[in-house]
Design goal:
Elements (H helix, E strand, L loop, with lengths): L1 E3 L7 E3 L1 H5 L4 H8 E3 L9 E3 L17 E8 L5 E7 L7 E7 L6 E3 L12 E8 L6 E7 L8 E8 L5 E9 L3 E4 L4 E8 L8 E9 L5 E3 L2 E4 L3 E3 L5 E3 L4 E8 L11 E11 L2 E14 L3 E6 L5 E2 L8 E8 L5 E9 L3 E3 L5 E3 L3 E9 L5 E2 L3 E9 L2 E8 L2 E3 L3 E4 L14 E2 L9 E5 L6 E2 L12 E2 L7 E2 L3 E5 L2 E2 L8
Parallel strand pairs: 5-12, 14-22, 24-33
Antiparallel strand pairs: 1-2, 3-4, 6-10, 7-9, 7-11, 8-10, 11-12, 13-15, 15-20, 16-19, 17-21, 18-20, 21-22, 23-25, 25-29, 26-28, 26-31, 27-29, 30-33, 31-32, 34-36, 35-41, 36-40, 37-39, 38-41
Length: 478
């Protein structure tokens, strides 16, 4: 089948037997194929189909399809030319190629110059009502790495029908890994296991329709190494991998990484080119630091559940993981609540919780917290802890309470008013309140009792009075 321009109001395609009846076959043969010579487009293939058609003064039967076939993406440009005859009632002064988002197609019209390589064209000589056929040329030039087939339409201004242009990209098309063209090693631990270097890979896959030879590869960047290769021919479907290694020697940061490049040479449109990848990464390490030790408040002796918690904070000021282990505290008044192994991420902190519970008043003997780290420069961290125990300032008065004579089998109370002073308990602490948890009466054969005292709270600087009861079980002194 040969592509034919229909009478101005549209485009059509007719069987070759119909064309033979209008144009002699030799004339068609001369127009089918040629090669451009003596022009800037030397070496480009020119395929031109030129035909005109008038069928009984009516428009052609169907819209034309101009198929460029497979056009290599290595710089080749292919041309097709259709003719139009205006059988309408108004002149046609231009046309537009629609749907070409990637810029494969353009008008190949040099007059006016503004039409050439453009998707729109305003004809210098409009197509008037005439039986004169007018050739209109188009080109397809798929860009490098183009894939697949593109189908667009050509609409002449005012025409009722549109022509269709079809073009398939052929040639080597590379799928690259990483697709961003940036091979980022990120943070690389200077003490990593297995040992340096860190390793990654660049991949080039030919997903096109033709082979291409690439290479050699070129590397820059003092901390990077890559496998050398001279040239490599990639057939369609082939994939080629280049191993790249990174060996940092000092600590860096994401804002100031080690940099390098890896370039693979190729030829595009007859000109040398490179597939270029950026290489980057930075070294990182861990740094153990005794960040802080909370102050230890003076603590009442035997505080029980009221014992204060003292935080000792360890910081990792490096970017790599720091492991803390074998945490222990030496000191009779101290205990460690969380001695388990800890993996501390970069630039973070961890607090050990210690409890201080003195058993005697006065300055306590110093205690020591010891922690093992994976920082080669600081394998052990120690913290010294000092504390002071203090008594509760609570007094009782009077020193002697005499309930005098009481009949056996009866009970006497101080509150009766004839047997001396009530028991007075005084909190002399200006800051702390105390709770009376127990009162122990030594001796007395359980004949004495102090009701309502246990569980009573003594506010700061407060004296409370309590009754004392005596219930003798036998005659005699108690």
């Amino acid at each position: 089948m040969v592509c034919v321009g229909a009478a101005g109001q549209g485009w059509s395609a007719l069987p070759s037997s119909v064309i033979d009846a209008i144009l002699p076959r030799p004339a068609i043969g001369r127009a089918i194929r040629g090669r451009l010579q003596g022009s800037p487009m030397r070496g480009f293939v020119l395929i031109a189909v030129v035909a005109g058609l008038v069928v009984g003064g009516r428009e052609a039967r169907a819209d034309a399809v101009l198929n460029f076939g497979t056009v290599p993406t290595t710089g080749e440009i292919r041309y097709l030319s259709a003719t139009a005859t205006n059988l309408g009632t108004t002149s046609i002064d231009g046309g537009t190629i629609s749907g070409d988002l990637d810029g494969w197609f353009s008008f190949a019209v040099t007059t006016p110059a503004s039409c050439d390589f453009s998707s729109t064209c305003h004809f210098s000589t409009p197509l008037v009502l005439s039986n004169v056929v007018t050739p209109i040329a188009f080109r397809c030039a798929p860009p490098p790495d183009a894939i697949g087939t593109r189908v667009v339409t050509v609409q002449l201004a005012g025409a009722q029908h549109a022509a269709t242009l079809v073009c398939t990209a052929g040639g080597a098309v590379f799928q690259l890994t990483p697709a961003t063209h940036v091979l980022d090693f990120g943070a690389v631990d200077l003490q990593r296991e297995p040992a340096l270097p860190a390793k990654s890979v660049i991949k080039v896959k030919n997903i096109g329709t033709a082979p291409e030879t690439i290479g050699p590869g070129t590397l820059t960047g003092a901390r990077f190494t890559a496998a050398a290769f001279a040239t490599q021919t990639l057939q369609p479907g082939d994939e080629f991998a280049i191993a790249v290694s990174y060996s940092p020697t000092t600590e860096g940061s994401s804002s100031a990484p080690d940099l390098g490049t890896y370039g693979i040479s190729r030829t595009v449109n007859g000109n040398p080119s490179f597939i270029s990848f950026s290489l980057q990464g930075y070294g990182t390490d861990r740094h153990a630091l005794l960040f802080s030790v909370d102050p230890v408040p003076d603590t009442f002796v035997k505080p029980g559940g009221a014992a204060p918690t003292i935080d000792v904070t360890i910081a990792n000021t490096g970017g790599a993981l720091l492991t803390l282990s074998s945490a222990s505290v030496v000191g009779d008044s101290w205990s460690l609540a969380n001695p388990d192994l800890v993996d501390l991420p970069g630039n973070s902190r961890f607090a050990y919780h210690l409890r201080f519970a003195p058993t005697v008043a006065g300055i306590d003997n110093p205690a020591t917290l010891t922690v093992t780290t994976t920082d080669l420069n600081v394998p052990t961290l120690t913290a010294t802890l000092n504390g002071t125990g203090k008594e509760r300032r609570v007094t009782m008065a009077p020193s002697t309470i005499d309930l005098q004579y009481v009949a056996v089998g009866s009970t006497a109370k101080i509150s009766d008013g004839t047997r001396g002073e009530l028991l007075q308990i005084t909190n002399q602490d200006a800051e702390n309140e105390f709770e009376i948890r127990s009162l122990v009466i030594l001796g007395g054969e359980q004949a004495f009792a102090i009701p309502d005292a246990v569980g009573t709270t003594l506010p700061p600087l407060t004296t409370l009075s309590f009754d004392v009861m005596f219930s003798p079980l036998h005659i005699g002194a108690y």
